[in-house]
Design goal:
The protein has about 120 residues and is mainly beta. It is built from no helices and eleven strands. Strands 2, 4, 5, 6, 9, 10 and 11 form a seven-stranded mixed sheet that branches. Strand 9 (about 90-100) and strand 10 form a beta hairpin. The chain is globular. About 35% of the residues are buried.
Length: about 120
């Protein structure tokens, strides 16, 4: 399994930007797809973006297309989420996740990092 630790969350005004990072440990990081999810208060966790093991894709939810960009650096075992033009409705706890080696499920999760966007 891959262990994941997110960082970079915080408080930002609407229209601003933040970059989240997710540091991974474990030898299989470069062999699995990784992604970002978020959960707002009172709502279910939702998919934000993902990227394949070799950087292919990437895929974003419609709600963040054109504003968020996912990338990865396999040499640094790190995945990033660059968030721009942030909206109040982007406020949530953001989680990094890694797929299992078969790519059939999100087998590893980080502890989450809070992103709060103020109006």
């Amino acid at each position: 399994q891959v262990q994941l630790v997110e960082s970079g969350g915080g408080l930002v005004q609407a229209g601003g930007s933040l970059r989240l990072s997710c540091a991974a440990s474990g030898r299989s990081f470069s062999s699995v797809g990784v992604g970002w999810f978020r959960q707002a208060p009172g709502k279910e966790r939702e998919f934000v973006a993902s990227i394949n093991k070799n950087g292919g894709g990437p895929y974003q939810a419609d709600s963040v297309k054109g504003r968020f960009t996912i990338s990865r650096d396999n040499a640094k075992n790190t995945v990033y989420l660059q968030m721009s033009s942030l909206k109040v409705e982007d406020t949530a706890v953001y989680y990094c996740a890694a797929q299992d080696l078969l790519g059939t499920s999100w087998g590893s999760w980080g502890q989450g990092t809070q992103v709060t966007v103020s109006s």
